[in-house]
Amino acid sequence: MGAESTDAVPRHRYTAALAGAIEQRWQRYWEERGTFHAPNPVGPLADGELPDQKMFIQDMFPYPSGSGLHVGHPLGFIGTDVFARFHRMDGRNVLHTMGFDAFGLPAEQYAVQTGQHPRKTTEENMRTYLRQIRRLGLAHDERRRIATIDPEYYRWTQWIFLRIYDSWYDEQADCAKPIASLEQAFAAGDVSTSDGRAWTDLSADERRAEIDERRLAYISEAPVNWCPGLGTVLSNEEVTADGRSERGNFPVFRRNLRQWMMRITAYADRLIDDLDRLDWPDKIKTMQRNWIGRSYGARVHFPCGDSAIEVFTTRPDTLFGNVALILAPEHPLVERITADAWPSDVDSRWTGGATTPAEAVAAYRRAASLKSELDRQENKDKTGVFTGTYATNPVNGERIPVFVADYVLMGYGTGAIGVAPGEDQRDWDFVTVLGITPVRTVQPPAGHPDDTPYPGDGPHVNSSHENGPSLDGLNIDDAKKTITAWLEEHDHGKGAVQYKLRDWLFSRQRYWGEPFPIVYDETGAAHALPESMLPIELPEVDDYSPRTFDPDDADSMPSPPLSRAGDWVEVELDLGDGPKTYRRDVNTMPNWAGSCWYQLRYVDPTNSERFVDPANERYWLGPQDAHGPNDPGGVDLYLGGQEHAVLHLLYSRFWQKVLFDLGDVSSDEPYRKLFNQGYIQAYAYTDARGSYVPAEEVSESDGEFFWNGQKVNQEYGKMGKSLKNVVTPDDMCETYGADTFRFYEMAMGPLDVSRPWATKDVVGAHRFLQRLWRNVIDESTGELRVTDTEPSDEDLRALHKTIDGVRGDYDGLRFNTAGAKLIELNNHVTKAYGKSGTPRTLAEPLVLMLAPLCPHVAEELWSKLGHDNTLAHSTFPVADERYLIEDTVEYPIQVNGKVRSRITVSASATQDEVKATALAEEKIAALLNGEPRKVIVVPGRLVNVVL
RNA sequence: GGGGCCGUAGCCCAAUUGGCAGAGGCACUGGAUUUAGGUUCCAGCCAGUGGGGGUUCGAGUCCCCCCGGCCCCA
Length: 947
Prior knowledge:
- InterPro entries: Leu-tRNA-ligase, Leu_tRNA-synth_edit, M/V/L/I-tRNA-synth_anticd-bd, Methionyl/Leucyl_tRNA_Synth, Rossmann-like_a/b/a_fold, tRNAsynth_Ia_anticodon-bd, Val/Leu/Ile-tRNA-synth_edit.
- By secondary structure, this protein is an alpha+beta fold.
- Among the domains are: 1-33 and 758-884, Isoleucyl-tRNA Synthetase, Domain 1; 170-266 and 504-589, no CATH class; 295-498, Valyl/Leucyl/Isoleucyl-tRNA synthetase, editing domain (Isoleucyl-tRNA Synthetase, domain 2), CATH 3.90.740.10; 683-726, no CATH class; 886-946, Roll (Ubiquitin-like (UB roll)).
- Helix content is 33%, strand content 18%.
- It is built from 29 helices and 33 strands.
- The chain is globular.
- The two termini are 68 Å apart.
- It binds one RNA strand through residues 5, 8-10, 13, 15, 282-283, 286-287, 290-291, 374, 377-378, 642, 645, 703, 744, 747-750, 753-756, 758, 760-765, 767-768, 770-771, 774, 779, 816-817, 819-824, 827, 830, 834, 890-892, 894, 896-897, 899, 902, 933-936, 938, 940-942, 944-946.
C-alpha cells in the first residue's frame, strides 16, 4: 500500500493497523497488571477479598498440535472468553485459564522419526499455540497454566493413580474405601475370600493376591489388541474393521496380556444414575447411558460334565428355546470341556472339517483372534464349531450341544450365551448355518414370516416342563419374573444386572506418557512406590519406539521403549523389607490420564503439598446452594466438542467419584454444565484431475467455481493443509484485528451449530466496529465526540431493551444475537447522532456491552471516555425496568388468520377494550357481517377475528 | 438396519417457544465521498420457511409420511 492511499484514510479510523496497535497495548496492560488473576481462598494465589459469587469456566484441554491453529480451533475458546468476561463484568470471581494435554502420540511419532525428544517438540508447539491464542485477547489467568507433561503435574497424576490403586469398592456401602479397610473386612469375615477360606488360613502371598484382585487399579490378563508389527497394544478405535492397524495396516491379534486395568465398572450404576443431576446436553447423556449399557437379566448355570457353564441373558424368559450354548473363543472353559472325539453321528457342518474337536476348536480360535471385535459382532455370516460336548438346560433337562462361535465376546456378560433363535436374529442366523431347528417360545402375531425370529412381546409357548416352571401364556415381563424366581429357588441362577461397560485398559507400550509409580519384586508382585518418591520421571532413552516384531508373530511379547532404559528399570529400594532390587513397570499411562483431573489442578496449580487444597477445591468446585439440594458441584461451564462425549467425560467422572469417595474432593461430579460447540468447516475445491487448488484463489460466477480460468469442483468439509483451504486466526488478526475476528466468529451463528467459514463475510464485523468507533471518536482528529446531551425517551428505550436482551444472550451463550443487538443499537445511535456527537449516556453502556465480544477496542474507548481503570470488573450495565415497559401496544388484526389492519392501544388496555377497538376499526368493521364467530385476543401480541 | 439432530432470502443466520416470517451480516442495486479504482458512508432489493398431509382461530414452531444433510449405535 503506497503513501497516497494511506493519506486517503482518516488518521484515526479504526483500521486493522490501529486495531493491532490497540490490541497489543491492552494485552500487555492486562498481563502486566494481572487483570484476569482470579483470587483463591487460600495459598499463594489468595489475594485479599474474595467475591462470594464465583464462576469456573473451562475449555476442553487442547493437544498442542504442531501444525498450528486454524480459525475453527479457537471458536470455543472465544465463546468461553466472552462468557467469562461477561460474568466478570457482572461482578463474579471468574476462573478461566488454559493448559495443555501434552502427552500423546504425534510428538512421540515425530521423535521416533527424527530422534528429537518429544518434550522439545511438545514445548515448541505449546509456545506456538500460546502465541497464537494470546493474539486473540483471551482473558486467562496465566498463573494457572499447566501441562500434563510437567513432572510437577504428573506427580499428582501418579499420586491419584496410587489413591485408586490403594482402594477397593465396598458394594455394601456403595463407595470406594482405602485398601486397609478391606483387610479388616476380610479379617472380620464381612468380605469373603475368593475360595471361601478364612482370612487367617491364607498365607501372606495369598492374602496379597486377594487384596490385589480387588483393587480399583489392578493388573489383569485382559484380551487386548496386540499389534506385533507396531510393537504395541492398540485401542479399539485404532483397529480397522478388517482387523488391522489403522496405522501401518499390520495384523492385529486379540491376545491376553498382563495389563493395568481401572475398575470403572464398579461405578457403572452411579455413572448412569448421576447423569440425571447434570446440566448436560441430552444427546451426550444418552450416549453415556448407551455406552455403559445397563441391562437387567439373569445368570443361569448349565451343567456340563463335571463343570457348569454360566450364561448371562437379558431374556431368561426364552430359556426353553435354548437349543444350544455358545462359548466365546477365549472362554477359559473351552479347553476343559472340548471332547476327545466327535460323536459318531456328528453333523459335518459342526466340525469345521477337522478330525477331532480339539483341532477344530484350535483352528477356530486362531482364526477368531485375527478378527476385530467390531468385525465379529457385525459379521452377518455366522460361524462356529462344536466342542463335541453337551450341556443340560436346567429348565427342561434337555441335552444341548456346546459350540464355540466368535460372535460371542468374552468381554460381555460371562462370555457364554444360550442360543435362543426364536427371539434373536443373530442366534437364528447361527442355527441356520449349523442346521439346528429353531424353537419359538414367544408366539409371533399373525402374519409374522416363518423364517425370521420374533423379538417382540407376546404370549409364551413351548415353555413348560413337568419338573420345571411354566411360562406358557405369560408376556415377557411376567415370564422374566417367574423364571428368575424359579432359577433362584432351585439354585440354577439368579437375577443379574449386566453392563456393556468394561474395565478401562490403562497401560500403553509407549514412551510419551506418565510412568507408573509401581515396581515389581523378584516374585513379580507389584509394589506401590511411596508418595515421597513421586514424581517418577521419564528416563532418557536412545530410541522412542517400542520393539517391533514380525507382523504375523502373534505370540511375540510387547517390549515397550521404557524396558530398554536399563539403569532406570532396575532400582534398589527399601520398601520396608530392607534394600532389595526391584524392576519398574515399563508401561505408561494412556493419554486420558492427565485430562481426568485437570479441573482440580487449575484450582490450585502451584500447590506442592497436595494435588489441590480442600478450601480452594470447595470454593471453586464444591456443590452450591444456588444450584439446589442435589447439586453435584463441578465446573460451572465446560465447553468442548462432542468427540469426547463418552471416553474422556466418563473417565473423568470416574476419577472424580473415586476421589470423592476417598474424601479428597467435595463434589462427586467434575462438570456441572456441559456445552458442545459446533465446528467451523470450509469449502475446498478440486480441479479436473482431482487435485486441490488454493481455496482463497477460487472465484464464483453463476453458481460455478473457477480457479485460474478453469472450472473447479466445490467440496465441503474440514479445514486442513491438504485441502488447501486453511484460514488462520493470525491471518484474520493481520487483516482485520482480533476484535473483528472474535466478533465475526461469534456472530456467524449459534455456538453449538457447525457452519462454513466465509472470509468475505468478516468485513461486516469490521465495518460495525468502525461505525461504533466513529460514534465515539472523530476519525480525523482523534478527539472524543461524545456530548452531554440528554438522550431521548426513544434512545433510552432502545438502550435498555438492548441491555436487557444482551445480558440474557451473553448468559445463554447466544453470542450471535447479542452481536446483532449491539449492531442494532449502534445503528440507532448513528442515525440519531451520527452528525452531532453521541450522548455519553449512550456511548458508555454501548462500549461496556461490546467489551465481552471485542475487549481491546472496548477498553480503548472506555479509557478515551476518561476512565482510568480497566472495564473488566463489575461494570456491566443493568437495564432499568422503566424503559422496558411500553406505554402503547400496536396490535395487528387478523381476519381468519390474515393481517387486515392494525390498531394502537394503551398497554394497560384490557382484553375486552382491545377486542372492542379492533372490531370498531374501520377496515375490520367493513369486513364484518354481523357478529364474528370468535375473537381471539393474545395480550400484547395480536387480535384474530374469525368470521 | 435402529436412534437422534437439522433443512427459513443467492449465502451465513434471527423469529419473545403456537401469535405480524426478518433482527444482524455478506452478496447485489442505486446514491454520496474520490481524478478513478478501492475504502468509507447512506438508501434500497430479495423468500413465505425442503415436499406432502394433519391438528388449530392461527404452524417456521406440534403430529404423520417422503426427500436431502450431519451425528451416534449396530
